[in-house]
Amino acid sequence: MFGCTGTAAQEGEGAAPFPQLRIVGLACELLAWTQMLAFTGPARRWEPKRLRLRIFAVVGRLVRGSRRLRLRLARCWPWAAEITTAITRLQAMTPG
Q1: How many domains are contained in the chain?
Q2: Do 21 and 8 meet the contact criterion of CB atoms below 8 Å apart?
Q3: Is 81 a residue whose pLDDT tops 50?
Q4: Rounded distance, CA 74 to CA 81, Å?
Q5: Does residue 88 carry a pLDDT above 80?
Q6: Which pLDDT score is estimated for 74?
Q7: Among 5-14, 52-61, 70-79, 85-94, which is the least confidently predicted range?
Q8: Closest CA to 45 of 32, 27, 29, 26
Q9: Do 33 and 66 belong together in one domain?
């Protein structure tokens, strides 16, 4: 078993470092929760590779105007509507 302060490499030969495993686990959890809360329909069941190719690789630009930041997405991107809906749903969940 690995301790909270040590790494797996300290515990045995050839084991992966414990902090990196925790970071990977947190990234997987964040991706799963974002998928459940933000997306609807078939996008909820997309594999991480499909999410990366369709959602995370979108071309966009941050634009500042009227003291607000806006995300401008490429109109020709086939999944721009799903991204916009996901961002709107996540913003509606934030307090304040």
Answers
A1: 2
A2: yes
A3: yes
A4: 10
A5: yes
A6: 87
A7: 5-14
A8: 32
A9: no
User: In terms of pTM, does the model score above 0.85?
Assistant: no
Identity at 78, one-letter amino acid code: P
Q: 14 and 48: one domain?
A: no
- Helices and strands (H, E) in the chain, number of each type: 4, 2
Q: Residue 60 is inside which H or E element, if any?
A: strand 60-65
The 10s digit of each residue's pLDDT in 10-59 is 555 566 688 888 999 999 999 999 999 999 999 999 999 999 999 999 88
Whose tokens are 């790494």? That residue is: 7
Residues 47 and 94 in one domain: yes
The reply to whether 95 and 61 lie within a common domain is: yes
Amino acid at 3: G
Query: Which amino acid is located at 56 in the chain?
Result: F
Residues 64 and 34 in one domain: no
Residues 6+ apart with CB under 8 A from 3: 11
Give the integer Cα–Cα distance in Å for 28 and 87: 19
